[in-house]
């Protein structure tokens, strides 16, 4: 698939077919993530590929707890009604785990120090979403969870950060969100 | 260009031809960035396109100051010798400016709250780098600067964050960095 077609055609998917994603497809997606740029090429990511039903269900039920808390704190009505079933229904969840120590020289900045790992991991997630789309798969960048809870469920090292939970599978339907015209958000300094 | 070819073939570029990047190319790159996913589709990015020589030179000279400071703080020898000429030599720098208020529900988390805008902006940068590569252009995700200094040079709103300075131009040469095998960084929970 052409790269511009992939970039403009990808949309978040929140309803997945139960059909398994093949190992070969998962590897293509991981490889795409792994080619992301990062500060000083430190490649601050690791991947945890979850197909285990029990683990997906624990993440789902903890996400429901988290959603309730976020609704109480924000008062945002859409949050209360936002179904999270895709977390347990997605055939695979890939956790992109970041290492905050691998942030490069930005760790020594005065402002916004130490977030290079997060930028690199986010670039990896975007590559993975584009790869999934090119393979005919849908994906969702899920982030409504407390890192500590996910760390515990997955027995992750305390020094690692679950930056994103990427839900992937064959899409039943995908979102149709639009974007504001980029020209309205661009300033030229010539 | 095929999306997998773009993802695996893109490398950071630190040496640019002086030849201008066309407006049409810049627009293709901005459009690619603008299609990134973001929390609650809040599209937390704006773009500042800098082709003005004086402004690029101010950013360059402030980056040299920043680099010196980071070297003193880190003691990392490579930093001292790292040439930053690409900042003034790149025909165009696109600043991806983020709005921290547009982080979605993650603002209400206990841990890592309010960084959704950074993740969305990083996904936008990655789209832009892939688009540049597909157009035969090189790019560099530059981040060795103090946000406050860049804000001042560009008269940016205090509430906006210069997440990345993306240097773009026709490449004289590009990096050849490799990646660790993703298999060594992957755990399967089946």
Compact overview of the structure:
The structure is a homodimer of 190-residue chains. Helices cover 40% and strands 19% of the residues of chain A.
Describe what you observe in this structure.
Two copies of one chain form a homodimer. The first copy, chain A, is α+β, with helices and mostly antiparallel strands. Chain A has a single domain (3-7, 19-172), classed as NADH Oxidase, CATH 3.40.109.10. The first copy, chain A, has helices spanning 3-9, 23-34, 53-74, 77-81, 86-89, 116-134, 147-153, and strands spanning 15-16, 45-50, 92-98, 138-142, 161-169, 171-173, 186-189. In chain A, strands 2-3-5-4 form a four-stranded antiparallel β-sheet, sandwiched between helices. The first copy, chain A, has a two-stranded antiparallel sheet with strand order 1-6. The longest helix of chain A has 22 residues, at 53-74. Chain A starts with a helix and ends with a strand. The mean pLDDT of chain A is 97. At the A-B interface, helix 1, helix 2, strand 2, helix 3 and helix 6 of A face helix 1, helix 2, strand 2, helix 3 and helix 6 of B.
Structural class of chain A: alpha+beta
Helix and strand element order of chain A? HEHEHHHEHEHEEE
What would you report as the Rg of chain A, rounded to the nearest angstrom? Answer: 17 Å
Number of helices of chain A: 7
User: What profile does the largest beta sheet of chain A have?
Assistant: 4 strands, antiparallel
Which whole number gives the mean pLDDT of chain A?
Answer: 97
CATH-defined topology of chain A: NADH Oxidase
**CATH classification, class level of chain A:** Alpha Beta
CATH superfamily of chain A: NADH Oxidase
User: How many domains would you count in the coordinates of chain A?
Assistant: 1
Largest interface: A-B, 81 and 81 residues
């Amino acid at each position: 698939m052409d790269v511009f077609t992939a970039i403009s055609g990808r949309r978040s998917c929140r309803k997945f077919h139960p059909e398994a994603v093949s190992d070969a497809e998962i590897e293509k997606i991981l490889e795409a993530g792994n080619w992301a740029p990062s500060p000083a090429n430190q490649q601050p990511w690791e991947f945890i590929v979850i197909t285990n039903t029990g683990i997906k269900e624990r993440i789902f039920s903890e996400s429901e707890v988290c959603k309730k808390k976020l609704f109480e704190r924000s008062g945002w009505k859409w949050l209360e009604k936002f179904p999270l079933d895709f977390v347990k229904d997605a055939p695979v969840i890939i956790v992109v785990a970041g290492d905050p120590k691998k942030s490069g020289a930005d760790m020594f900045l005065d402002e916004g120090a130490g977030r290079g790992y997060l930028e690199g991991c986010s670039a990896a997630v975007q590559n993975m979403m584009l790869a999934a789309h090119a393979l005919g798969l849908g994906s969702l960048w899920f982030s409504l969870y407390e890192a500590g809870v996910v760390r515990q469920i997955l027995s992750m090292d305390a020094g690692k950060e679950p930056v994103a939970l990427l839900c992937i599978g064959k899409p039943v339907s995908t979102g149709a969100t639009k974007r504001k015209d980029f020209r309205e958000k661009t300033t030229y300094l010539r």
